[in-house]
């Protein structure tokens, strides 16, 4: 097998494409022949030694992938050689093969596209947990999505529309705003040239959004929170802009609003049955055509450095996917 090996976590430039022994699954594990893997922001952080999870060196990065079961370890049930699966396992995805604990695999319906499967679990799992579980978003409510053209943003947009909400998509360029309208956004805001608070006031008749979905953080957080509706829910997804904002808590008091943390990976670990129900709903929505992972570009697995460069360009719409074969 071949894989991208991180021996010194100083950034993507330190990764090396190497031939490694094909791993054998241990008890409770499955070996997967990887067909596709997608990039997520934590993949960059982990090879920079900036992520909260720090795997022992050396390791193969790549948290999210899809492929086919190639071998079963002792005690594994419910899976068979040849099954199509997807996983969000933390590491191991940027290669041709990996072993993964069986509970971390989602068995896919027949014919599910591998490139889409590799871009499903993290962004759609996060966004479903955020909007449906944590925010209890209801049909007819208004949700503001920051960074709406990115991976989690496009997933959140589609899920909010599937629930029946009105979506205001905020992005950093007119082109990205046009892209979001093409995905079904009811209104858009280019926050690099428009005043976020003034636009939200105009678009909601002064009421504000019921839910704010924020994977961006930084200087957008406070104006978004100041605009939130009475009993609004502010979802803390991540901090793609880099800065972790400090929100004035008196605003939560004045608006009767909630600041809600979203950590899908921990939710999946602590509440596996609830997570399984959420994933089943996502698969059903995909079969119905209500959601579909947005793929920005597809590159060969051997071109991981170019994929990281593409992800860092701020021009990505949806997810960058790497393919084997």
TrEMBL record:
Q: Supply the InterPro entries for this chain.
A: ADH-like_C, ADH-like_N, ER, GroES-like_sf, NAD(P)-bd_dom_sf, Quin_OxRdtase/zeta-crystal_CS, Zn-ADH-like_protein
The protein's UniProt keywords, in alphabetical order, are: Oxidoreductase
Instruction: Return the PROSITE patterns for the record.
Output: QOR_ZETA_CRYSTAL (PS01162)
Task: Report the enzyme's class at the first EC level.
Answer: oxidoreductase
Per UniProt, residues of the Enoyl reductase (ER) domain are 11-322
* Gene Ontology MF term list: quinone reductase (NADPH) activity; zinc ion binding
Question: EC?
Answer: 1.6.5.5
Protein's name in the database: Quinone oxidoreductase
């Amino acid at each position: 097998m071949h894989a991208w090996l991180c021996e010194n976590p100083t950034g993507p430039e330190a990764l090396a494409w190497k031939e490694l022994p094909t791993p054998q699954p241990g008890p409770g594990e499955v070996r997967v022949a990887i067909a596709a893997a997608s990039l997520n922001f934590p993949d960059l952080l982990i090879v920079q030694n900036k992520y909260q999870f720090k795997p022992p060196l050396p390791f193969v990065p790549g948290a999210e992938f899809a492929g086919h079961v190639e071998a079963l370890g002792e005690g594994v049930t419910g899976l068979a050689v040849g099954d199509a699966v997807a996983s969000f396992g933390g590491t191991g995805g940027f290669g041709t093969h990996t072993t993964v604990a069986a509970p971390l695999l989602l068995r896919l319906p027949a014919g599910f596209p591998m490139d889409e499967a590799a871009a499903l679990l993290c962004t759609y799992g996060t966004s479903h947990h955020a909007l449906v579980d944590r925010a209890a978003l209801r049909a007819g409510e208004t949700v503001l999505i920051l960074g709406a053209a990115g991976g989690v943003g496009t997933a959140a947009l589609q899920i909010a529309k599937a629930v029946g909400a009105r979506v205001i998509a905020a992005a950093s360029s007119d082109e990205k705003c046009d892209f979001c309208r093409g995905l079904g956004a009811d209104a858009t805001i280019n926050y690099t040239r428009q005043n976020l608070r003034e636009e939200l006031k105009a678009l909601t008749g002064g009421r504000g959004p019921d839910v704010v979905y924020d994977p961006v953080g930084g200087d957008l957080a406070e104006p978004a929170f100041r605009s939130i509706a009475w009993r609004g829910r502010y979802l803390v997804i991540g901090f793609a802009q880099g800065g972790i904002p400090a929100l004035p808590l008196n605003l939560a008091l004045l608006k009767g609003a909630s600041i809600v943390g979203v950590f899908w990976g921990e939710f999946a670990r602590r509440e596996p049955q609830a997570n399984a129900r959420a994933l089943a709903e996502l698969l059903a929505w995909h079969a119905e055509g209500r959601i579909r992972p947005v793929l920005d570009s597809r590159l060969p697995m051997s071109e991981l450095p170019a994929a990281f460069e593409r992800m860092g360009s701020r021009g990505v719409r949806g997810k960058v996917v790497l393919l084997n074969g």
